[in-house]
Input
Amino acid sequence: MNNEKHAWWKEAVIYQIYPRSFQDSNGDGIGDLNGVTMRLDYLKKLGIDVIWLSPVYKSPNDDNGYDISDYRDIMTEFGTMEDFDRMLAAAHARGIKIVMDLVVNHTSDEHKWFIESRKSKDNPYRDYYIWKDPRDGHEPTNWGSNFSGSAWKFDETTGQYYLHLFSEKQPDLNWENPKVRDAVYDMMTWWCDKGIDGFRMDVISMISKVQSYPDGELFDGVYGNANPYVCNGPRVHEFLQEMNRRVLSRYDIMTVGEAAGVTVEEAKRYANNEGTELGMVFHFEHTDGSSNSESVIGKWTVNPPRLTYVRGILNKWQTELEGKAWGSLYWDNHDQPRAVSRFGNDSKEWRELSAKMLATVLHMQKGTPYIYQGEEFGMTNMHFESIDDCRDIEEINAYQQYVTDHKLVDAETMLRCFDTIARDNARTPVQWDASANAGFTTGTPWIKVNPNYTEINAEAALADPNSVFYYYQKLISLRHTTPIIVYGTFRPLLPDSEVLYAYEREMDGKVLTVAANWTDREQECTLFDDLEGEELISNYDSHRTGILQPYEARVILH
Ligand code: GLC
Ligand code: CA
Output
C-alpha cells in the first residue's frame, strides 16, 4: 500500500519561463510579461500545470533580475504591475498556476535597503547586510564569489567590506537580523495575498552563514571555497521553519528551494513530509559540471557527463527520499546547458529520439518534473564564437579572470567550455517559428538567436504529430491520469549497466517498468521480453525482442 500524502504540487508538471528570452511583445528585443500572456494558450496545449517565472521584479539586471532593487515592483523592460496582474488572471483562467522566483539571499546594491546601509555604520539599515572590517588591510576572508573574484567588496565610505557571494551588485542580506526576516516575510505575504501560487527560492540554502567567518580551502589557486560556511548553514532550518509558520503554512502554495550544496540528508530536512519547511528542493549533484567529468577549471568543462554517474546520483536521490521527503526532477534550467545537448545527442539524426528518451527517463521518476522553456521541442546548445556573444555575468567574469587576467586557460578552450555548459546556452531566445529572429522579436534580440531556429522551432513541432512537443504532451497527460507515476515507489534496475537506464515503479500491486537505451547503438535488453501489459509510451512504433534500438525508451504498466 502507498501512504504518501497527496498534494496538488506532487501531481503537477512545472514549466519554467525565463521571461527575458521567452517572447518579446513590443519589439525592444527583450522578452516581457505581455509576451508570456500571448503564449499561454501554447502552454495550455502542452498541458503543464504551473509556470515558474524567473524574476520579474525591478532590477538593474546585473544578473538578469536575480539582483532585485524593489520586490514590489516590476522590471521596467518586462512591463508594469498591471501587465503582471493581467498575466496572472489569464493564467488562472486557463487553470495554470504561477510560482514566483524569490531571491532573498541577496538584493541589488540599488535596493533602498543597501543604499541606506552603505551610508554610515550607524544607519538603521547597516545590519541588513554583512559588513566586516579589513583583516590586515585585506578582505575579511579568502572566499571567492560564485561569479569569480573575491566575495568581499571594499566600500570607501565606511572603510568596511560587504559580502557578496554572487556579483558585487548582489550584496548578501544578513538573516541574523530579525528585521530582515520580518521584511522578507511581509513582502512574501504581499505576493501571496495578490494570489500567486508559490515560490521557487533562489539559493535558499545559503541564507545562514557560519558566524566565525573562517577562510576556505583554495579551489582555483586564487580564492577559497566559501560553501562549507554558507551552504546549509547553522540556522537555515530555523529560518525556514519560521518562514513556514509566518507565511507559507497560511496559504495553499507550492515551494521549491534551490539548494546549492545540498546533500540527501539535508534535503530530507528541507523537504520533510511533515511540511515544516519547504515542499521540495533542487539538488545539483547530477548537473554539477566539475564532478560529472574532468574539468578544465572550476565548473568549466568540455566533457559530457557519464551515464553511470548521472544515473547513480538520481537513483540515490530516488531511493533515499522515498517516504521521507518529496523530490524535484529536472535536466536543465536557466543556469544549465540544454538537456538534449548535454545528456542526449543533438545531431540531426538523433536529436528528437534522444530528447524523447531523456524526457521518458525523467518524467517516469518519482517527484515533480520541471520543463525548461524550449526543452519541450528539443532546443539545443549555442556555439559561442567569441566572448562578445556572451551576455552572462558568470561567463564574462570567468573569461576575465581565467583567460585575460591570470592566463590560466586559453581563449579557445574557454569558449569550448562555454559551448558545453555556459548558462547562456539556455538563455538564447525561444525559437517559435522560422521567421526572422525565430519569431521572438521584431527588433534586435538582446542575445543572439541560435541559428538552427529555421529547423528547430515550436511551429514546426506543432505541425508534426511525431514531434518532441507531442511526446511531452503525452508524458504530462499520463502523469495526470496514472497515479502510479506520481505516487508509486521507485526501484532501480540494471544499476551496473553502462548503456541502459532502467527502473520500476510500484503501487497497489501494479508495476511500471521503464527502460531506455542511453546510446546511439542497439543494445541488448531483455526486460520487456516476458512482460504482458499495456505500453503507456515509447519513442519507437515497433520494438524488437531482446533489443533496445538507439535511444529507444519504453514504459510498460503490468
Ligand atoms: C541562482 C540563480 C542564478 C543566479 C544566482 C544568484 O543560482 O538560479 O541564475 O545567478 O542564484 O542569484
Ligand atoms: Ca519587450
User: Anything to note?
Assistant: The first helix runs from residue 33 to 38. The chain has a mean pLDDT of 96. The pocket of calcium ion (ligand 2) is lined by residues 24-26, 28, 30, 32 (CB under 6 Å).
